[in-house]
Amino acid sequence: MRAIVTSLTLLFLTLMSQLAVAIDIRELRSINAQVNLEFQRQPTKEKRYNHSALAKYHLVRQRYPHARTMITHAQHVTPSGYEIEPLTVLAVEVNNRLWILDFELLNIYTAQDRRDIKPLTSIEMRDGQVWIHHVDNDWSIISSQPADSATKERLRSTLWENMPG
Fold this sequence. Notes:
The chain is α+β, with helices and mostly antiparallel strands. The protein has helices at about 1-40, 45-65, 150-160, and strands spanning about 70-75, 85-95, 95-100, 110, 115-125, 130-135, 140-145.
């Protein structure tokens, strides 16, 4: 009897975690679309892209405070390998899958879906510490280091002073 109850409990938890993934992804899509549409009306490109990433960062952190959320600086690469426009995207790890929210598409995608984006560095604020990660082409973190005090204060003020609400 105990084995049956344990099996049913595990099955229920598995089904609930799969349901949570669908809800998380739908919410991430909604956040991405909402912010992109709002910031597409901004008059200057630079402000639009940078503030869009910050707005998404804050909305995701408010909705999912325990999700790993990083602002990633990346390079758009053509199929021939030519690096064009730099961009800033939001990388969110949800249930062991990395989702990318960018400024031009209304949908979100996995890191594996977009091979034309080459990540360079990520900034993450975790437990009050600002981390700078050097990221490989497959979006895995190669190395991490805490930001020096001047960089930490500048990033903390950028990330937290611009927080809505």
